Amino acid sequence: MYIFLGNFSLLEICYVTTTVPNMLANFLSTSKSISFVSCFTQFYFFFSFGCDEGFFLCIMAFDRYLAICRPLHYPRIMTKQLYTGLVIFGWSGGLILFLTPVVLISQLPFCDPNTINHFLCDPVPLMTLPCSEDTITQLLYSTFNVIFMIGTFLFILCSYALVILTVLRMPSRAGQHKALSTCASHLAVVVLLYGSIMVMYVSPGSGHPVKIQKFITLFYSVITPLCSPLIYSLRNKEMKTALRKIFGTEHGVHKM
User: Fold this and answer.
1) What CATH number should be reported for the domain holding residue 207?
2) Residue 144's CB: how many other CB atoms inside 10 A?
3) What's this model's pTM, rounded to 2 decimal places?
C-alpha cells in the first residue's frame, strides 16, 4: 500500500508542476503568452500524468481488494514482480495513451488570433480555435475520455463493492472499522478527482461557461492535489492526535 501511495504522491508532484509554476508566472506577467510547442508540451504531460493518476487509483483499489478480500493469498499474489510491473504500468500508461489525442489536436488548422481564455492549455478551449470545426477529432477525443474515465471509475467501484461485501460479512466491529478506515482516504480522493474531471471532459462540446471551466480545472489541478496529502495523513495516529490538540486548544481559548 505504501509503495503505491509513495508513487502516487510523486506523480501528483509531477502533475502539479506541469501547470502551477507557469500559471503563477502568467499572473505576474503582462504578456501572458506561451509558444505552440510549450502549450502542447504542457497539454501532453499534464493530461498524461492525469491519466496515470487514474491508473494508480485503480491499482490502489485492486491492492485494497486483495488485502481485505483475499488476505491469506495477498503475499502470494502481490509479489515483488507484480507490484513492480503495476508501478511501471501506472507511470507509463498515460504517457503512451495520451500521445494519440495530443497529436490529433495539434494537427488541427489553427487561425489567428490564437487566444485561450484559460490559465493552462486545456483541450476544451483549444478545440474552439481551429478555422474549421473538426467533428471527427472532437468525437475521437470525447470517446477516449469516456472509455478511460468511465472504465477506470467502474473498476474502482467494482473493487470497492467487493470490499464492502466482504467487510459486511466480518464478525468483528473492530475489523470492519479498520478495513473501512483503510479505504476511506482513497475513496475520498477518487470522489474529488473523478467528480470534477467527468463534468469537464466526458462531454467537452457541452459548452460549459468559461468561468465554470476555469473553476473546475482549478479544482482538479490544484485543490485536489493540495487536499490529497491531508486526506491520506488523517490515517496517521500522530496526525489525528495533533489535530485534536489544535482544535482542543482553540476550543479552550474560545471558552475563556
Assistant:
1) 1.20.1070.10
2) 17
3) 0.83
Q: Would you state the pLDDT for residue 194?
A: 85
Mean pLDDT score of the chain, rounded to an integer?
81
Domain of 54 in residue numbering reads as 2-255
- Cα distance between the two ends of the chain: 44
Nine cell digits for residue 32: 501572458
- Highest average pLDDT, of 57-61, 165-169, 241-245, comes from 57-61
Q: Can you list the alpha helix ranges (DSSP code H) found in the chain?
A: 2-17, 20-28, 36-69, 74-77, 80-97, 99-106, 123-126, 135-168, 173-201, 210-218, 224-233, 237-255
> For 55, left (φ over 0), alpha (ψ -120 to 50), or beta?
alpha
Phi, psi of 67 (to 5 degrees): -65, -35
Higher pLDDT, 91 or 244: 91
130 upstream amide cis, omega within 30 of 0: no
Q: How many domains does the chain have?
A: 1
Helix axes 99-106, 135-168, angle to 10 degrees: 160
Please write the tens of the pLDDT for every residue from 214-256: 888 888 888 888 888 777 776 666 666 766 777 665 444 444 4
For 129, other C-beta atoms within 10 Å of its C-beta total 16
Separation between Cα atoms, residue 254 and residue 256, nearest integer Å:
5
Taking the mean position of all CA atoms in its chain, how far away is CA 204?
18
Cα(249)–Cα(102) distance, rounded to whole angstroms? 52
